[in-house]
Each structure stands twice: as C-alpha cells, then as structure tokens.
C-alpha cells in the first residue's frame, strides 16, 4: 500500500512505488514515445495525479518469456536477480504483462498453415502447459517479495484479427491463446486485466500488426496501449 510520510502527527505527503514487469508490451515496443504512450506510462501519469511522489520502475523486456522471468526472480545466479528483488521489495503496485512470447517464439513464417495444424499442436500445447506451471510460481514469488503490493496482470490477446484474409490463422491462434489464458483465470493473488476481451470488441485497430519478410510486429499501437491503460486504471479505482 502507499507509503505515508508523517511529520508531527500530520500527513505531509503521500508516495507510491510502482513496478512494471513483463515483456515488450510492458516495455512499450514500437511506440514513438514509449515512456509517455505505453500503458505503463499512462498508469504512472494516473498515479502522479493521486500521489505527491511516484517512484516508477519499468522492467519490461523485449521477447521475455515466463520461464525467463521466473529465472530472474528465483535464480541468484541471474545477473538481474538482485535488482528485481530489491526493487520489488518496496513495491506498492505491480503490473505484469507475460505469456505472449511463450507462444510467439514458436511461430515460424516459413511453415504453411497445414504444417502448423499437423506439427504445431503438440508444440503449442506444451508451451501452454509450461506457462501453466510458470505463471503461478511467478505470482507466488512476487507475492512473497512484496506481500502487500497490489498486483495487476494482463492476459493475452489474439493479434491475428487485424490480418485481413487470415481467418484460419486467427482461429488457430485463438485455440492456443484461450488455452494459455486459462492460467490467468485459474489462479488467484492478483487482479486480472482482460485485455483480450477489450481487444476483441473494439473495432478500431489497436495493433501495429504487420508482416515483413520473416518479421511479425503484433504489438499494441498507441490506441492499444491507451485501452490497456484504461483497463488497469479502472481496476485500480475499483480496488481503492
């Protein structure tokens, strides 16, 4: 919870420590001004209106998977272990965006759809099963380091809805994203931010979603980050 600075029995100022964990969505990949336009930046702005002092740390890392984040949080040999844990120890609010890369790193554009259907099912299901093991451990570690922190966790959206003419790919992605998202629905100790539901319903394009050669950019654009930021802030208001 927020830290109150007290002097002579009167509250002088109010401060809050906000830590953002996760992947390139938390980082704000693809934004021209990620510190301001990312959902993390927007949450920070909201907190600045509520508190006199906001101490913000964004640990968002491009390409981060759940197993990598778990290793950072639990492995003393990891070079980021001490920094993450020392920062989290003082956190009042934690946001987390994780899971997309557990699936995305398996995507290969040199395979056609039929090959994915035939060969990819086992691979993607195993990734979802591993995430189901990693995710509650991540929440448990965060909770053990910062037992009083408010934790807000984004689930995973389907980026393929923005690809015209790729309905079959959308349906295939939906199968495994729904399976991955079960891990968010089946665990506790945090507030779930259902960005998938919001992204499915908003008609405006919320993603960069471009394909160039073998590169895919499925990240939220500025509008997408605004929608995520709104959801997180709404959840914070309900929790206050």
Structure commentary:
The chain has 240 residues and is α/β, with parallel strands linked by helices. The longest helix has 33 residues, at 113-145. The chain is 50% helix and 18% strand. α3 runs parallel beside α10, α4 (66-74) packs across α5 (81-88) and α4 packs parallel to α7. Residues 4-8 have low confidence and may be disordered. It is globular and about 60 Å long.
Instruction: Tell me the series of helices and strands, N- to C-terminal.
Output: EEHHHEHHEHHEHEHEEH
Rg calculated over all Cα atoms: 19 Å
Helix-residue proportion? 40-55%
The secondary structure category is: alpha/beta
Helical element count? 10
Q: What spatial form do the alpha-carbon principal axes imply?
A: globular
Low-confidence parts lasting 5 or more residues at pLDDT below 50? 4-8
Number of separate strands: 8
Distance between the termini: 10 Å
| Overall residue-averaged pLDDT value | 88
- Main beta-sheet strand count, sense and barrel state: 6 strands, mixed
Offer a quick outline of the entry.
The chain is α/β, with parallel strands linked by helices and 240 residues long.
Could you name the key traits of this structure?
240 residues; 18% strand; two-stranded antiparallel ribbon; single chain
Write the layout of secondary structure elements.
Elements: E1 3-7, E2 10-22, H1 24-27, H2 34-37, H3 39-50, E3 53-58, H4 66-74, H5 81-88, E4 93-97, H6 100-104, H7 113-145, E5 150-154, H8 167-185, E6 191-193, H9 195-201, E7 210-212, E8 215-217, H10 222-239
Parallel strand pairs: 2-3, 2-4, 4-5, 5-6
Antiparallel strand pairs: 1-2, 7-8
Helix pairs in contact: 3-10, 4-5, 4-7, 7-8
């Amino acid at each position: 919870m927020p830290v109150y600075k007290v002097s002579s029995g009167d509250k002088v100022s109010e401060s809050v420590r906000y830590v953002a964990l996760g992947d390139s969505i938390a980082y704000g990949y693809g934004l021209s001004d990620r510190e301001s336009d990312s959902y993390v930046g927007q949450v920070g702005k909201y907190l600045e209106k509520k508190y006199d002092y906001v101490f913000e740390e964004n640990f968002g890392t491009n390409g981060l998977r759940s197993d990598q984040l778990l290793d950072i949080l639990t492995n003393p040999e990891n070079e980021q272990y001490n920094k993450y844990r020392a920062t989290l120890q003082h956190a009042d609010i934690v946001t987390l965006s994780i899971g997309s890369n557990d699936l995305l790193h398996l995507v290969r554009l040199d395979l056609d759809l039929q090959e994915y259907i035939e060969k990819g099912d086992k691979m993607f299901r195993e990734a979802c099963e591993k995430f189901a093991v990693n995710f509650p451990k991540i929440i448990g570690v965060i909770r053990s380091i910062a037992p009083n922190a408010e934790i807000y966790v984004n689930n995973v959206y389907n980026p393929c809805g923005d690809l015209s003419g790729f309905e079959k790919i959308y349906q295939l992605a939906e199968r495994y994203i729904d399976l991955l998202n079960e891990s968010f629905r089946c665990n506790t100790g945090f507030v779930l931010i259902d960005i998938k539901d919001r992204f499915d319903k908003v008609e405006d394009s919320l993603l960069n979603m471009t394909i160039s050669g073998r590169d895919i950019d499925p990240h939220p654009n500025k509008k997408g980050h605004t929608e995520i930021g709104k959801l997180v802030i709404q959840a914070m208001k309900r929790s206050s």
